[in-house]
Every structure is written in C-alpha cells, then in structure tokens.
Amino acid sequence: MMAAMRRRPLRHLFAGALLAAAAAVLVGKAWLDLSGPYLEALPPYPTCAEAEAALAEDRLLEALELAEAGGCTALLAEAEARWHAPLATLERCAAGAWTGVGEDGAGIACAVASDLIVFGDVRDLTRQGLAWGRGEATDPLLVGLSTAGLVLTFAPHVDVGTALLKAARRAGRLTRGLGDDLLGLVRRRAWGAVADLSADAARVSTRLGVAGGTRALAYADDADDLASLARFVERAPTPLLALRWGGRQTLRLADDDALYRAALARGPAGLRLAAERGGRALLARQPLLIALGKAVVKHPDALADLLAAWATWLLRWVTWPWALLASGGLALLALLLRPRGRRSRRARGARAASAGLGPGT
User: What's the pLDDT tens digit per position in 135-169?
Assistant: First the structure.
C-alpha cells in the first residue's frame, strides 16, 4: 500500500507531462501554420542531380552554376573541361571579335575585348553609320555607348563597364529601363554619370566574367537596380543561379548572408520565400523561440536550437491529421496512467464499510 502511495506522485507527474506534450503538439503546429511559412519547412534542393541532368543535355552554363552551388566536385570538373574545349573556344572567340556578337561566353568575351581596344567602338560606329546611309534602322543606344567608349577609353575600369553594356545590348539582355537611362545620359553628354553607371557594370563583369555579367544585366531595370546588382554579385555566392531561380527580388538578400545561403539551399521556392518574408522566413530567428531560450536556461542558444529543431520536425513531417492523432494518443495515455482520485478511494471505502456491516455483524 505504501509503495503504491509513493508511486502515485510520479504517475501524476508523468501524466501531466504527457498532457503538456499533447497540448504542445497542437499549439506548436497551429502557431507554425499561422506565423509561417518558413524555409525550414522546405526540403533541400537536389542541386547535384539537376547539374547532372543539365550536363547530360549539354546545358553547360547551367550545369556549371548548379555544380558550383551544390559543391558537386566531379560534375563541376567535367562541365569546366567541356566548356573550355580549345578549338571550339577559339572559333567562337574569332566570330565574337569580328561581329561584336557572341553566342556564348567565349564569343561574348572576345566581342567585349575588341571594344576595350577601340577597334570595337570604331567598328560599331562604322556599321551604324553605313546602316544610316542606306536608310536602314540604327540603334541610338549602341551609337551612344560606342561614343562613350571612345570618350572613356583612358579610364579602363569604366571602359570595361561600357563594353559590357554594349555586349548586353547586342545580346538583347539590356532591359528597356536601363537602356533609356543610358540613352538619356548620353544625349545630355553627362559623361560623369555615364562613367558611374559603367563602373557599376564593370563591378558585375569583374565578379562574373563577361558572359555571366551580360546575363546578369537582364535583372537591372534602371541605374539604381544596376548599383544593387553590383553589390549583390560581389557579396553572394553563385549569384547568377540565385537570380535565375528567384528573379530580381533576390537582390534584397545581398545584406543577409545567412538568410541567402539557407534560401539558396532550398532552391527557387526558398529564394522566393526569403525575398518575400526577409528574416522572418527563418524559424530560428523567431522572437518566441529566442525568448523561451533566454527565459528557461543559462544557455539560451542551445535551447533555441533545440526548439527550432522540434518546430522544423513539426513543419516538415507532421501534417494536421498526424498532429491530431499524436496529440490524442498522448492525451489518452496520460488519462490511463493518471491515478484515481479521492472520489474513487471514498467509493472503495464505502464498499468496504458496507461489506463489514452485513447481516453477520
């Protein structure tokens, strides 16, 4: 009897813990659904598998970006070897230098190189002049950029940007908004402003190379966007892949490296979510988890990480039917383990007393 009485508080404690766990599952699931969505709910993106598929289909630039982002060493080496095949590279380079238009990285790079030695600017002005003389359509922006290239020839860091802008224009990757800004500056002969804009383009080219820089300019709608783009590509790993997956809104993540990396690991959906919600997309940064950690233990970071791991499990694997089933099971187990109360003891005592006062007494 005494042993049973000693076990009773432990059963009360255990039953209370089970009831608290049942409530925590439901309350936690509801809070996560109402306050989310979160990056932790998204599965990791199969970057290496996508890189292998791109390589098999000869989409080499895409394979390079994916393999670099996913740390797929063998795939990256194979993609680089195929991309830099000597004979094909030489042919594309020669065509780019002569026509000013490149079909890929090598052709674009040589087209830009020709712009850096005046030849390209003179070539484009001559061709535009001949087209005008024949009554054909001309490109005022290309004329303006070629003129700016001649004016800024002795400022190499600026001339690189001007050459990149021309390459993007010829490739059809220069947005209308940015082109209008440039054309307006050239027409006003605002060479200082043209130089500032070209310097931002040069920063993009320095980080991504000519081919990558040309593709990146498609995400700049105006001069302000170009400055943001330059800052983003200088700070973010694999910025071209992120831009292709998340679009222009990805530029918002330039100043938050942890958020950017967590979003990139979850692919296009992760980048879109991070751009929309900012730091609130990371469950580990939720004020409630941090406050609980600080309030309960001396090492709040460890508890916050534990709570975040529990919440991540709820987010990723536990749907509402499973949450209800788990909570109900815990509550039922708690009721079964809970010792009987005073009313039950009184009933037993009454039955015992009535048995003792029977006809034989």
Answer: 777 778 878 777 776 666 655 566 678 878 887 88
In angstroms, the CA 118 to CA 125 distance is 11
- Examine residue 160 and state whether it is found in any structural domain, yes or no: yes
* Averaged pLDDT, 274-290: 77
**Domain limit, last residue, from 216, 235, 254:** 235
139 with 223, same domain: the answer is yes
Structure tokens of 171?
Answer: 């490739």
Give me the long-range contacts of 187-194 (CB less than 8 A, separation at least 24): 187/144, 191/148, 191/151, 191/152, 194/148, 194/152, 194/162
Q: Is the dihedral of CA 262, 240, 208, 152 positive or negative?
A: negative
Closest-CA residue to 186 (of 169, 172, 208): 169
The number of residues in the chain equals 361
The terminus-to-terminus CA distance of the chain in angstroms comes to: 27
CA atoms of 21 and 4, how far apart (whole Å):
25
Give per-residue pLDDT as tens, 22-60: 777 677 667 666 676 888 778 889 999 999 999 999 888
| Number of domains observed in the structure of the chain | 2
Regarding whether 141 and 208 lie in a shared domain, the answer is yes
Tell me: do 220 and 301 sit in the same domain: no
Bigger pLDDT: 348 vs 250? 250
Global confidence as pTM: 0.68
